[in-house]
Design brief:
By secondary structure, this protein is of the alpha+beta class. Helices cover 42% and strands 15% of the residues. The chain contains 13 helices and eleven strands. The chain is globular and about 55 Å long.
C-alpha cells in the first residue's frame, strides 16, 4: 500500500488532510517503493522490513535468526525504549520515519510441489534453492542452513517457484495465501526464525513539514491501527491456513528438539553473526540489549503461531 498526499496539507480544507491511496503496487513494490519514499516521490508506504534494509540497514537487525522470530518477541522489541533509542535515530538518519510496524507472523519454510516434505530439520535444506529477498542477513541465514540462497524479486517469485528456479521461500502463511501461492506449494514449516514483518514508513522531511497537530494525528492513528493489527493476527492466520488446506497445502511445526537444531545451526548466538551485529549497531553489547528488550513484555500482547 502506498500513500500519495497529492494535494498536501496546504490545500486541505476544514482542517482535513486528503490522502490519495494507491493499492496493488500502482506506484511500485518492494525496494523500488522504499526508494520512492526516501526520495519523497511518494510520502508514505507499507513495505517489508527486508526491503527496507538496503535503505535503512539498522532495521535489518530483526532478521538475525532466532532473535525475535516469534510474534510476541518482535512486538516487545519494536515497541521498546531500546529500539526507539538505538534503531529509530538510524532510520531517521536515512530520511525515513517509521510510523508503525505490521505484525504478520514469523517467516516460514515453504516448499513447492515436487519437493519431499515436510522440512523438519535444517539438514533437509541441503542444496535447496531458497528464494530470498533483499536482506543480506537472510541470505547468510540460508547459507548457514546449507540451502542455496537465490535472490528473486518479489514480483517474479511465483513464476520462479512454478518453473523450479527456486524450490522454497519463506513468507508468513498469510502472505503466501494473499499472493496466490496456495496452488504451487506442498508443505509449510513453522520454524519461526525471523518475523515476516512490515513497516509503514514515511518521508521524514515531509513529516516534519506538517503542522504539529497533523503530526500528532498521524502518530495517534498509527498507534490505533497498530493495536488493531495485533488483535486480528490469529483470525487472519486461521483463515489463510484453512483456505490453503483446501488446496492441499500441509503444515508442520517442529518439535522442541527439532527447533533446537535450527537454532544451533544458524541462531543469533553464533560468532558468525558478530560482524553483522557490529556493522548494524556498533557493538555486540548493543545487540544484546536489543535481544533483552525482545524478551521483555511491555504491555502489547499478540498471539503466536502454534502450527
Amino acid at each position: 500500500m502506498q500513500w500519495n498526499f497529492k494535494d498536501n496539507v496546504e490545500n486541505a480544507t476544514n482542517g482535513q488532510v486528503y490522502v490519495k491511496l494507491a493499492p496493488g503496487g500502482q506506484l511500485g513494490a518492494g525496494s523500488a517503493l522504499v526508494q520512492k519514499v526516501q526520495g519523497g516521490t511518494i510520502q508514505a508506504a507499507q513495505h517489508s522490513i527486508s526491503n527496507f534494509a538496503p535503505f535503512a540497514p539498522a532495521a535489518d537487525v530483526i532478521n538475525i535468526p532466532y532473535m525475535c522470530g516469534e510474534n510476541q518477541r518482535f512486538i516487545n522489541l519494536v515497541t521498546s525504549d531500546a529500539w526507539k533509542m538505538e534503531i529509530n535515530p538510524k532510520i531517521e538518519a536515512k530520511g525515513f520515519k517509521a510510523l508503525w510496524y505490521v505484525n504478520i507472523d514469523p517467516r516460514t519454510c515453504a516448499i513447492r510441489k515436487g519437493i519431499d516434505g515436510p522440512i523438519k530439520t535444517p539438514d533437509q535444506l541441503q542444496g535447496i534453492k531458497f528464494r530470498v529477498p533483499g536482506s543480506k542477513i537472510l541470505q547468510q541465514f540460508y547459507q548457514l542452513l546449507g540451502a542455496n540462497p537465490t535472490p528473486v524479486a518479489w514480483g517474479e517469485t511465483s513464476s520462479a517457484i512454478k518453473q523450479g528456479v527456486a524450490d522454497a521461500l519463506d513468507p508468513a502463511v498469510g502472505a503466501l495465501y494473499t499472493f496466490g501461492f496456495k496452488e504451487i506449494l506442498s508443505w509449510i514449516t513453522f520454524n519461526a526464525a525471523v518475523p515476516d514483518a512490515q513497516v509503514y514508513s514515511c518521508n521524514l522531511e515531509w513529516f516534519n513539514s506538517l503542522p504539529k497537530d497533523v503530526q500528532e494525528g498521524v502518530e495517534f492513528a498509527s498507534d490505533i491501527t497498530f493495536r488493531q493489527n495485533l488483535a486480528m493476527v490469529p483470525a487472519a492466520r486461521a483463515y489463510a491456513m484453512a483456505e490453503m488446506t483446501k488446496s492441499g497445502v500441509q503444515f508442520y511445526a517442529p518439535t522442541p528438539e527439532e527447533k533446537e537444531q535450527w537454532v544451533a545451526k544458524a541462531g543469533a548466538q553464533l560468532p558468525a553473526w558478530d560482524d553483522t551485529k557490529k556493522e548494524l549497531l556498533g557493538s555486540v553489547d548493543k545487540f544484546d540489549a536489543l535481544q533483552e528488550a525482545a524478551n521483555t513484555f511491555n504491555g502489547y500482547y499478540v498471539h503466536d503461531v502454534k502450527g
